[in-house]
Amino acid sequence: PKPAVRVAVSGAAGAIGYSLLFRIAAGELLGPDQPVELRLLEVDEALRKLEGTVMELQDCAFPMLAGTETGSDARRMFDGVSHALLVGAKPRGPGMERGDLIEVNGHIFGPQGEALNDAAADDVQVTVTGNPANTNCLIAMHAARDIPNERFSALTRLDQNRAVAQLAAKTGASVTDIHDVIIWGNHSATQYPDVTHATIHGRAARLEVGDDAWLNDVLIPTVAKRGAAIIDARGASSAASAASATIDHARDWALGTDRIVSMAVPSDGSYGVPEGLVSSFPVTVTERAWRIVPDLTIDEFSRARIDASVAELESERDAVRALGLI
Ligand code: NAX
């Protein structure tokens, strides 16, 4: 058999972790013939709960699960990992401002970036799901001085999947017939789900839908507010869908994809997004490397929305700079 690949998951005892770990162990991240070793990071108070999840993982008798370690020491958990899925974060508590949220999470993602820098495998790829995902990623990337910036990314795949699913429901097309839906900017309410380049059965989505008002006034807010709608209905935030999107993102990055997908990655200045900001772009992936899709035309409608989301990212970056976190 192939040697096992080490995969770290932080926040492993949480709701997303409860879905994510089983799918990784089932082979959905790195393939059905690739053994994986899970390295599960949690805070001390959650380690007992995590033990229960590990017992269940064991009880699944997954053929590809080569081992599981748990602990609260990031350096030890990140030792030799080729994939780090950073899910654990502090949620926004009552009365907490966005600035406070950024600060508490900065104190999680800074040290985790340093630990990755010291301990991870040379080929590590880091995916940040914990919110505020783009800015947490920016902080970890800065803290990991020796890891190339292009190995850091944050999740906007859930937003992409949500937009594709809405288009499929509207048109009756299969999700697999829908291509090139793009998420730009921040994983927040300012994100811009862009269908101007999207196709359905190879035909422009705008023509296939034939309802500009729905595209502009229903689809965009439905995607941007989907997280809140799910909290409203379930009384808890999206977990299985967030885990599924985390798998989609990290799998496509690790194994490649023939599709254009959206990932929040450090900007090279493309599309007027200031260099270094972790912002969502359309990318292609080959040989474990993403590349921003160049030269797409951006109409006025799109430009205004991309600019608004990027402005929010700049203000988050300024806030973490002022706190000395980057
Ligand atoms: P939970 O609160 O269920 O789980 C989070 C876990 O992280 C807890 O078990 C907690 O003990 C752990 N944790 C906290 N600080 C830690 C640290 N320093 N080191 C290791 N573990 C730590 O939240 P869950 O529903 O699993 O969501 C996790 C994160 O994903 C949240 O930040 C959430 O906002 C974010 N989401 C991101 C999405 C995205 O598309 N990017 C969508 C879903 C989700 O809202």
UniProtKB/TrEMBL annotation:
Keyword NAD found: yes
Domain Lactate/malate dehydrogenase C-terminal: 156-320
EC number assigned by the record: 1.1.1.37
Gene of this entry: mdh
Keywords noted in UniProt: NAD, Oxidoreductase, Tricarboxylic acid cycle
Phylogenetic placement of the source organism: Bacteria, Bacillati, Actinomycetota, Actinomycetes, Micrococcales
Binding-site residues for substrate, renumbered to this chain: R92, R98, N131, R162
Homology family: Belongs to the LDH/MDH superfamily. MDH type 2 family.
Matches recorded under InterPro entries: L-lactate/malate_DH (IPR001557), Lactate/malate_DH_C (IPR022383), Lactate/malate_DH_N (IPR001236), Lactate_DH/Glyco_Ohase_4_C (IPR015955), Malate_DH_AS (IPR001252), Malate_DH_type2 (IPR010945), NAD(P)-bd_dom_sf (IPR036291)
SUPFAM superfamilies: LDH C-terminal domain-like, NAD(P)-binding Rossmann-fold domains
PROSITE patterns with a match to the protein in the record: MDH
Function: Catalyzes the reversible oxidation of malate to oxaloacetate.
Catalytic residues of the enzyme: H187 (proton acceptor)
Residues covered by the Lactate/malate dehydrogenase N-terminal domain: 5-150
Molecular function terms, GO-annotated: L-malate dehydrogenase (NAD+) activity
Reactions listed under catalytic activity: (S)-malate + NAD(+) = oxaloacetate + NADH + H(+)
Species: Dermacoccus nishinomiyaensis
Gene3D superfamilies: Lactate dehydrogenase/glycoside hydrolase, family 4, C-terminal (3.90.110.10), NAD(P)-binding Rossmann-like Domain (3.40.50.720)
Pfam families according to UniProt: Ldh_1_C (PF02866), Ldh_1_N (PF00056)
GO biological process: malate metabolic process; tricarboxylic acid cycle
Protein's name in the database: Malate dehydrogenase
Positions bound to NAD(+): G11, A12, A13, G14, A15, I16, G17, N105, Q112, T129, G130, N131
